[in-house]
Structure formats: structure tokens, C-alpha cells
Write a structure and sequence with these properties.
single chain, 370 residues, alpha/beta, Rossmann fold, 2 domains, 6-stranded parallel sheet, 37% helix
Length: 370
């Protein structure tokens, strides 16, 4: 269900200049409930910090430029930083601390590790800064004000449904279908949300015998892909194929994103096996090409431009001393508090609806014309 701790890319906002008074937040874990109360606005032209994780997907690369342009056009001074893949979470912690020191009025955080930023988020609160958790929910602190994301549980459900639909369309009479499961990096809290959403659809079919996981690896700890690295997914797929599919057919693979989907397909090809139904997410260029070529079965369209635009709107509301728009105030518990959330709706994309899904997208729409 959605009412699990959804930890992932986080967008939290605490409004800027400090006012006298007490905070009404009541967290009990590492989060501090003391500190500056969010102010009724802050000056136009203020510094806005944006701390993003490493560039593991096209969407993260795109987000940095969109934040720079969007915040600049809105009259703010953006400071956009990435945590290099070669460094630990300490690099992002240092970047957030620097943003606080430099007087950022709002800090937007796409967490590298959502469980290790509570001290920095609480320091931002103490300084009277506004913190927005972007895409990945920051956990174990009451100092997160807002979370902005696509509905990531729904993403998983769409992937699970697409996996079933694709296998049925390919071979309606087969039972059971042999599948394998992959999940994302364990330090990304969205990984659990994606996986739980998919298993909400797939587990009943595993239980009733419609699906069979020949490896027996159905727990998220067994299916995780450290760092979201393609080489890790490809290596695990190699092992799964060698151990379980020397003679058996592999009908489907739950892949949480496009980068891993392509690695899984590479492994399957290297083993001389027919390409199974493979799911994905992020609408990466190479995966859209693969879908149109009939290899990867589907992806999820989560328009980064729309999510960044919502984040900029949130900053603008805070700057004016207004309450930002949210559409979920019940579901996203970070372990200490339920974080007010704005969710966008993801869209499942297959070859059949790709032209419609990417209509108007200057990069992707041309790829769908055949």
C-alpha cells in the first residue's frame, strides 16, 4: 500500500526568514523540533540551493539544467550541485551545508541517500531556510516540509501490470510464465516503493501459480541493484540465466528503470536467448528506440520538466509567504511525520501508445515515427 514509508528522492520545503515562535512539528527520532519557524516569505532574488545525486540517468542530468533555467527565470539565484558518483553521501552533505552557509532561502534536495541527510535538513531548519524533498523522500526527520514526486507506488503498479499484459499478449496460453525480479539501489528509498508497487500486482499471480520465479529471489534484498549501475544488473542477469535458464524459457523481467532494462537485454542477447518482456522507467532515448524496435517492452513517462516546474512553483509560493499546493497529506510518512506532498501522475508507454505519450516532446516524438 502507499502508506508505507516512502523514502526516495525528496523535495522538502521549509520557508525562509525566521520568525519568533515555536515549531509545531512533533518528530521523535533524530529530527529536531526546535529552530526557526518558517517565515512569511523572503526577498525576491534570493539564493536557492539544489542538491542532486549523481548523474545515473538522463532525467537527473536534465533536472540540473531545468532547475538552473527555471529558478533564474523566476528571479532567483540558483546554486545547483551534483554529488559525484565516485564520492560517498558525504559530498552531498557538504554541499547542503555550504548552501546553508551561503544563505539559501530554500534548499531542494534529490537525496543521494535519503536516510543520511537528517542533520543537514535540521541545520537548514535552524537557519530558517526552506527545504524541499525532490523525487526521493528524506526520512527520519521532522524538518522536511514538502515532498514533490511522481506517484512512485503507481509506477511500480504500472510496471507490474505491463509485465503481465506483455507476456499474455505474446503467449496467451502459457502457464506459468517464468519471470525474474530486479529492484533499484538499496540506498534509494524509491527502490522499495517501486518494488512494492510492482509486487502489489505480481505477488498474487506468483501465489496462484500464474507466475514462477525460477531463481526463488523474490525479496527486495535479493533483487537490489547497488548504485543503479547497469553493470551490476547485467552481472546478476548473467548469473540468473546460467543458473536457471539453461533449458527453461524466460518470459519476463521486472526492471525498475530503463538503464537496467537495457543491461538486462544485453545479458539475454549475450546468452543467445529470446528477449523476454522487460519493463522500464524514465523514457530514456535509447530505451524509447529499443521499444520502437520491439526489444524493451515498456517504460514509464515521468516528465522531468513538469516536476521541476512544480518545484519552482513551490519556491515561488514560499517566497510570497503562501502555502504551496499539495494533493496528498496522508500517505507519505517518513518515519517521523507525514510530509505534505504534491504527486504527479506517471504514464506507462509501450510501442502502441508512444506517439501519443511523447507528442510535443522535441526529443522523443521523432523517435516514435516509423
Amino acid at each position: 500500500m502507499k502508506k508505507v514509508i516512502l523514502a526516495s528522492t525528496a523535495i522538502a520545503a521549509i520557508a525562509a526568514l525566521a520568525l519568533a515562535g515555536c515549531s509545531s512539528r512533533g518528530g521523535t527520532s533524530g529530527g529536531s523540533s526546535s529552530g526557526a519557524t518558517p517565515a512569511a516569505g523572503f526577498p525576491a532574488g534570493s539564493s536557492i540551493g539544489v542538491a542532486l545525486p549523481d548523474k545515473t540517468s538522463e532525467n537527473w542530468v536534465l533536472a540540473g539544467q531545468l532547475f538552473t533555467d527555471g529558478l533564474t527565470n523566476a528571479g532567483f539565484k540558483p546554486e545547483v550541485q551534483y554529488a559525484p558518483a565516485s564520492n560517498t553521501v558525504a559530498e552531498q552533505q557538504n554541499q547542503i551545508t555550504s548552501m546553508i552557509t551561503n544563505g539559501a532561502k530554500v534548499i531542494i534536495i534529490g537525496a543521494k541517500d535519503a536516510a543520511q541527510l537528517s542533520s543537514q535538513v535540521e541545520a537548514a531548519k535552524q537557519a530558517g531556510a526552506a527545504v524541499i524533498a525532490y523525487d526521493r523522500l528524506i526520512v527520519n526527520t521532522d524538518a522536511v516540509d514538502y515532498y514533490l514526486a511522481y506517484d512512485n507506488f503507481k509506477v511500480g503498479q504500472l510496471q507490474g501490470k505491463a509485465l503481465l499484459d506483455g507476456m499474455k499478449a505474446k503467449d496467451p496460453s502459457k502457464k506459468p510464465y517464468n519471470i525474474e525480479l530486479f529492484s533499484g539501489s538499496p540506498d534509494d528509498n524509491n527502490s522499495k516503493v517501486f518494488f512494492n508497487g510492482a509486487m502489489d500486482v505480481l505477488k498474487p499471480k506468483i501465489d496462484d501459480g500464474t507466475l514462477k520465479v525460477l531463481s526463488g529471489q523474490t525479496d527486495i534484498s535479493q533483487t537490489a541493484t547497488q548504485g543503479w549501475l547497469a553493470q551490476n544488473a547485467q552481472s546478476r542477469m548473467d548469473t540468473l540465466l546460467s543458473a536457471n535458464y539453461a533449458t527453461a524459457s524466460l518470459d519476463g523481467v521486472l526492471s525498475p528503470n530503463d538503464n537496467l532494462a537495457r543491461a538486462i537485454i544485453t545479458s539475454v542477447k549475450a546468452h543467445g536467448k529470446p528477449i523476454p518482456i522487460v519493463t522500464g522507467q524514465d523514457s530514456e532515448v535509447e530505451s524509447v528506440k529499443s521499444i520502437m524496435a520491439g526489444e524493451q517492452y515498456m517504460t514509464i513517462n515521468k516528465d522531468t520538466a513538469k516536476l521541476v516546474a512544480q518545484a519552482v512553483k513551490t519556491v515561488e509560493a514560499l517566497q510570497k509567504g503562501k502555502k504551496p499546493e499539495v494533493n496528498d497529506t496522508k500517505s507519505y510518512n517518513n518515519g517521523v511525520k507525514v510530509v505534505p506532498t504534491f504527486l504527479l501522475t506517471p504514464v506507462a508507454v509501450t510501442k502502441e501508445n508512444a506517439a501519443e505519450a511523447y507528442k510535443g516532446n522535441a526529443t522523443l516524438e521523432p523517435l516514435t515515427k516509423q
